[in-house]
Amino acid sequence: MLSLLRELDFLPLHSRAEFDDLKALLAHDALPPEEMESWEEKELEIASSFPEEDATELIAILKGKAELRNVRRAAAFYKTSRGSFSGTRSSFGVKRNNIRRFRYQLERASKRLQDVVIENKDAMSLIPERDVPNGIVYCDPPYYEAEQLYEAEFGKRDHVRLFHVLKACKGYVVVSYNDCPYIRNLYKDFFIITLQRDNPMAKKKKSVYRELIITNYDPRQFWDKQLDLFEEPGAKWTMDLVHIPRKVLKQ
């Protein structure tokens, strides 16, 4: 963690308050002994089986990579994500960082993701594998006619394929999209909500952005529930149910 903070240019610290925050951060950073074994330790164990002179050279290289390569990659990813518009890491502005907010964000993300399993598969095959009657599938696909903003290719045919996969789901489905006539017509068998929120990417003050929230169930029963992952204070949005299908797909 100290290496990460140094790479993020948080060191040296300039106040006792920041140092107290750093101590608290490190105090919660320790892992139980059974979780301490990592790939670096396995690599070091293998390197130790080499002849002594060779092992010394290999261990020095591995320790250097563990200390610098992974930390620098993590820090670089954090910097580019925090310094880019909407986390795209391709369009950059200038943002201030501070150690207190950095710690708070990592702690919240860590708690939210501690039981999350991440799978790198084609969504069209993964969704049916994970679909269960009492489960929920949330999709945030590349926005229609904005595919050039994403590294992965996702054309009109993929939007149609995704629609058919989601329509066949046995569980609950929630999809977020940009508001456009094509998507509204494609998902006419679903409930469609317009969500208008502040647009932090715009250069004009009081600029808003309108998106769609699409569900295969009647969303009005959950209308007053939490809408964001972290319950951000001061978040502003307005919602309107703009389309009700003739037949509800999921009761």
Q: What is the structure about, briefly put?
A:
This protein has 251 residues and is an alpha+beta fold. 39% of the residues lie in helices and 14% in strands.
Written as H for each helix and E for each strand, in order along the chain, the element string is: HHHHHHEHEHEEE
Strand order of the largest sheet: 1-2-4-3-5
| Silhouette | extended
Which runs of at least 5 residues are low in confidence (pLDDT < 50)? 30-37
Q: Care to count the β-strands?
A: 5
> Main sheet?
5 strands, mixed
Radius of gyration: 23 Å
Q: Indicate the structural class.
A: alpha+beta
Keywords:
14% strand, 251 residues, five-stranded mixed sheet, alpha+beta
Protein architecture, described:
The structure is a single chain. This protein has 251 residues and is an alpha+beta fold. The protein contains 8 helices and 5 strands. A 5-stranded mixed beta sheet has the order 1-2-4-3-5, with no helix packed on it. The longest helix is centred in the first third of the chain and has 31 residues. It is extended, with a radius of gyration of 23 Å. About 3% of the residues have low confidence.
